[in-house]
Backbone:
């Protein structure tokens, strides 16, 4: 078991898949000679050559569409969004073309669109977004949001091997801040299966991506200061969503708190709550609550960003309210 | 806009049999669409109906320049039914598709000619204009990366040249030297909008200069001119010469779709194109003058086309509608079927 950063785990997954399958290739802006804005693809050009590590024009629609065409022909392209904020430039072709190709036309479209998402980095409105909810509403896509190095690698390898298009949200706050063990060998984590990040019996926090770490921190505080046993469910994949894991945890603790970094209105949390209402309402001892970002574009100044994004204290406060309900 | 251009200087290097085949595909396109109109009026075509009347030479002449033995691939636009027929789509398949039948190529999921078959070399378009340019850039990128001697052809209309997807796709393909031919079918109108409101460029082919690729223009109602100009671009692409943009000048004699009364078209314009510049009439004259094809041979082909379409219509009418629950199949490879409407019934676990 090697200890690597979240970023190194992603790069390792890419390298292993490119070595395993000659159909895998990367395309995106500045990913070749520069190694990508965050250096995720550093060294890949030297290792695999310019045919498999393609520097593209600034054209998200262009290279996402091209990836789809290559995928139809049996290749397995991996597109990098320099920042995931720019995936909105490819929103139309992803939702209208890529997501529907199999259903409409029986065309395979095995491709990955990956890139750095998320805030807490003073990136301002266009380098901090969490656009996953915009795609949750699109049948045909799969959405992956890893929180740990092991998952980042294992889920990326699964995403590349998957026969459906996958959006892979890497949290940039975690790139170099999180280091963890990654199992040796061909480590593949299946899509659609949540992970129990922490076991508990009094309350369930259902979350994903960087919010997993804030939720774990909150769980420590709640145990230490309140004697509460808090369970943390890391969804890992938003589409397909692991209803069984959500329901199992809610039935066990009878109290649920959804935590995500994206804005609250229309966020993934609302969908999770709807599913809990449908599948486990009778087990609830309290209304399901959400901790999420305020409904504003994400501002730049630390005093503003820290106020808008959910913090550990917000999670602790909501959990205390739920536990006392 | 000029209604005619001078004929090509180099005659198409086609045999007599091939020339008759070109005529056959153009007639097949026109008669099949006429049959679809009849079925539309009987409400047997359940969605919109798009015609290529007067534009048949564009689709047929260009697709004919591809090499089916090398597995070239094209992606048609809404008025390129003829290109799909050349690639091997059968009239029955088109009828089943328009009539939303369960055994249609799209299994009732898609409209009109939004259908594809990779084996026969056509990929179905979507309604978002311009999107097929980046997709075909990727298809042809795969040919390049795998060193396959294959070529791709993508059709767009004059309207789609205004989209970002067109620009991004053609630029990507040009930079990557993909073996791609982009045909801009300039038929004068995008829905009701004339080309003059679509672009300030004198010619749509002029846009090629901005991508560093050759831009050619030809008379889209002269099937041999269409064939020649496309063949030149296809040969260049196959030889590693990259992308070519071709503007084919034609005219849309019907509305955007069958419901459109074309009230926005200046009086006399449609009739003038119909009487002076019909691609089938022109080709029949050319066949008689230059290739000694007499009227009886042409008439025999017309009869063959009508018989084929009659037989296909009879079969299509007998075909069943799709099974409703099959709507849940095939959104993903995995899971193969969407969970059965779990949200519509209250479950108690």
Residues:
């Amino acid at each position: 078991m090697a200890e690597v950063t979240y970023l190194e785990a992603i790069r390792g997954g890419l390298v292993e898949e490119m070595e395993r399958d000659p159909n895998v290739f990367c395309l995106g802006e500045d990913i070749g000679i520069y190694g990508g804005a965050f250096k995720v693809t550093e060294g890949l050009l030297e290792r695999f050559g310019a045919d498999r590590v393609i520097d593209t024009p600034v054209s998200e629609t262009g290279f996402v569409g091209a990836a789809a065409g290559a995928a139809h022909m049996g290749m397995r392209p991996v597109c990098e969004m320099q920042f995931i904020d720019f995936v909105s430039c490819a929103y139309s072709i992803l939702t209208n073309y890529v997501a529907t190709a199999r259903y409409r036309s029986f065309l395979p479209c095995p491709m990955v669109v990956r890139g750095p998402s998320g805030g807490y980095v003073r990136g301002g409105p266009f380098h901090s977004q969490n656009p996953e909810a915009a795609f949750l509403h699109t049948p045909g896509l799969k959405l992956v949001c890893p929180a740990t190095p092991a998952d980042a690698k294992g889920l990326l390898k699964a995403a590349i091997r998957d026969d459906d298009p996958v959006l892979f949200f890497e949290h940039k706050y975690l790139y170099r801040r999180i280091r963890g063990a990654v199992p040796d060998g061909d480590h593949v984590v299946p899509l659609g299966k949540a992970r129990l990040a922490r076991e508990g019996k009094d309350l369930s926090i259902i979350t994903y991506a960087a919010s997993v770490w804030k939720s774990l921190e909150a769980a420590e505080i709640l145990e230490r200061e309140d004697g509460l046993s808090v369970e943390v469910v890391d969804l890992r994949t938003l589409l397909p969503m692991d209803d069984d894991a959500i329901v199992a945890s809610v039935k066990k603790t009878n109290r649920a708190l959804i935590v995500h970094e994206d804005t609250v209105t229309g966020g993934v949390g609302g969908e999770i709550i709807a599913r809990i209402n449908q599948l486990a309402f009778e087990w609830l001892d309290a209304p399901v609550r959400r901790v999420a970002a305020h409904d504003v574009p994400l501002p730049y100044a630390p005093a503003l960003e820290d106020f808008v994004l959910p913090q550990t204290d917000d999670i602790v406060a909501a959990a205390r309210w739920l536990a006392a309900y | 806009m000029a209604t005619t251009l001078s004929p090509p200087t180099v005659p198409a290097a086609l045999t007599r049999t091939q020339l008759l085949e070109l005529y056959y595909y153009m007639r097949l396109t026109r008669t099949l669409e006429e049959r679809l109109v009849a079925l539309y009026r009987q409400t047997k075509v359940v969605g919109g109906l798009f015609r290529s009347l007067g534009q048949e030479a564009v689709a047929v002449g260009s697709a004919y320049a591809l090499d089916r033995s090398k597995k070239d691939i094209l992606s048609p636009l809404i008025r390129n039914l003829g290109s799909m027929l050349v690639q091997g789509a059968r009239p029955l398949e088109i009828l089943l598709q328009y009539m939303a039948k369960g055994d249609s190529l799209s299994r009732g999921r898609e409209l009109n000619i939004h259908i594809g078959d990779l084996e026969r070399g056509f990929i179905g378009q979507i309604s978002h204009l311009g999107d097929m340019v980046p997709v075909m850039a990727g298809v042809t990128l795969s040919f390049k990366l795998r060193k396959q001697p294959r070529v791709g052809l993508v059709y767009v209309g004059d309207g789609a040249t205004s989209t970002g997807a067109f620009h991004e796709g053609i630029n990507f393909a040009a930079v990557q030297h993909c073996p791609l031919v982009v045909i801009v079918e300039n038929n004068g109108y995008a829905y009701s909008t004339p080309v003059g409101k679509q672009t300030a460029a004198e010619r749509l082919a002029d846009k090629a200069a901005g991508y560093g690729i050759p831009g050619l223009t030809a008379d889209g109602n002269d099937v041999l001119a269409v064939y020649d100009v496309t063949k030149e671009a296809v040969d260049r692409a196959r030889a590693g010469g990259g992308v070519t943009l071709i503007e084919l000048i034609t005219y849309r004699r019907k509305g955007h779709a069958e419901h459109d009364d074309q009230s926005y078209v200046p009086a006399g314009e449609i009739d003038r194109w119909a009487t002076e510049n019909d691609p089938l009439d022109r080709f029949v004259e050319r066949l008689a003058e230059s290739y000694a094809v007499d009227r009886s041979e042409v008439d025999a082909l017309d009869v063959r086309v009508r018989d084929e379409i009659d037989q296909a219509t009879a079969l299509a009418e007998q075909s069943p509608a799709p099974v409703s629950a099959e709507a849940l199949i095939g959104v993903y490879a995995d899971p193969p079927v969407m969970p059965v409407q779990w949200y519509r019934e209250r479950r108690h676990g």
Notes: Chain A has a mean pLDDT of 98. Residues 99 and 140 of chain A are 4 Å apart (CA to CA).
